[in-house]
Design a protein that fits this description.
There is one protein chain. This protein is an alpha/beta fold and 316 residues long. The chain has helices at 30-35, 47-50, 82-95, 133-141, 156-178, 182-191, 193-199, 201-212, 217-233, 238-250, 258-272, 279-292, 295-298; strands at residues 8-12, 41-45, 60-63, 70-73, 101-104, 116-119, 125-130, 147-149. The chain has 13 helices and 8 strands. Strands 2-1-5-8 form a 4-stranded parallel β-sheet. A hairpin with a 6-residue loop joins strand 3 and strand 4. The longest helix is centred in the middle third of the chain and has 23 residues, at 156-178. The two termini are 20 Å apart. This is DUF1722 domain-containing protein. InterPro entries: 2-thiour_desulf, DUF1722, UCP037004.
């Protein structure tokens, strides 16, 4: 499949095997270093090292109001790097407008995107209710950017969904770089039709009229991408995949013999019932597409949303 080149993903440097953690170690994440690195370029960031904390260094934690915590030393509260981290995060966010996704280090008081432990001023645990100071600033500056944590990416559905969103967002960035036009917006929407159907049917139906009646292309594009990324953010479920598969099946109604139509319907139904993986109906449809060359389906990203060798649909 064609990919916008290059696609860059920001990542916590320790996840790439760099020995930048507080104890001089790392948290190498094989999915990034061994799999994603074949197709994506990584931008490594270690916020603590960047603000001069060094390696090794004292540990830090989130303290106080979970919505606006301080970033202080675990053993010495006089070590407070909150403002330094915020300034670095805001400066870095401005320089990272070329990335298409970000992988944060889970539980980190600087890089954790959710469920980071927070303690009160007196040191009492308030629970896993915080967001890392660096991650919070970066996500606020780039609200459409696909983001995930290494821990969550061990979940097959979240892993597949993250990569799907990264590639889709990179396509959008490439479209913007070329110069947004009404025709470009309409083509983008058409080619993502079945991906949208598989993720959020309601938003798909809403986006059609927005694209068709776009007098102000820039305003329409801004609204479109916000709703498009919101639609893709939740992993597709079997019910919506079934709906997308059945829509695609309809394009073959004048081509397939009765036996093939019935078998395809059975395979789609078995997938929806949890008896077959998604790859089975997809491969069957791909074979029919290769044979009958249905123009509208030829360039649909639903069939190849990301590099096949990442094996992200295995097990879905």
């Amino acid at each position: 499949m064609e990919l916008p080149q290059p696609i860059r993903i920001g990542i916590s440097a320790c996840l790439m095997g760099e020995e930048v953690r507080y104890d001089g170690g790392h948290k190498r994440f094989p999915f990034a270093t061994d799999e994603l690195s074949r197709h994506f370029e990584f931008v490594h960031v270690c916020p603590e090292q960047a603000i001069g904390m060094g390696v090794p260094r004292p540990t830090i934690r989130l303290v106080g109001d979970p919505d606006q915590p301080r970033l202080q030393g675990t053993q010495d509260a006089s070590l407070d790097v909150t403002e330094k981290m915020q300034v670095f995060a805001r400066d870095t966010a401005q320089k990272l407008d070329h990335i298409s996704g970000y992988i944060f280090c889970a539980k980190s008081p600087s890089c954790g995107m959710e469920r980071v432990p927070v303690v009160s001023e007196k040191g009492n645990g308030l629970g896993k209710v915080g967001v890392g100071v660096y991650a919070r600033e970066l996500m606020a500056a780039h609200p459409l950017l696909p983001v995930e944590e290494n821990g969550r990416l061990n979940d097959l559905q979240l892993r597949e969904n993250f990569v799907l969103r990264v590639v889709a967002y990179a396509r959008w960035q490439a479209l913007e770089a070329e110069g947004m036009t009404a025709a470009g917006l309409q083509t983008f929407h058409r080619r993502h039709k079945f991906l949208l159907l598989a993720h959020n049917q309601q938003i798909y139906r809403e986006l059609g009229p927005l694209v068709a009646g776009a007098d102000d292309v820039e305003a329409a594009a801004n609204e479109y991408i916000q709703r498009f990324m919101a639609a893709l953010k939740k992993p597709a479920n079997p019910r919506n995949h079934r709906n997308a598969l059945m829509h695609i099946q309809g394009f073959f109604k004048n081509h397939l013999e009765k036996e093939d139509r019935e078998r395809l319907s059975e395979v789609i139904a078995d997938y929806a019932a949890g008896l077959l993986p998604l790859l089975v109906p997809l491969e069957m449809l791909s074979l029919f597409l290769e044979k009958y060359q249905i123009d509208y389906l030829q360039d649909q990203y639903y069939f190849n949303p990301y590099p096949r060798d990442l094996k992200l649909r295995v097990g879905l």
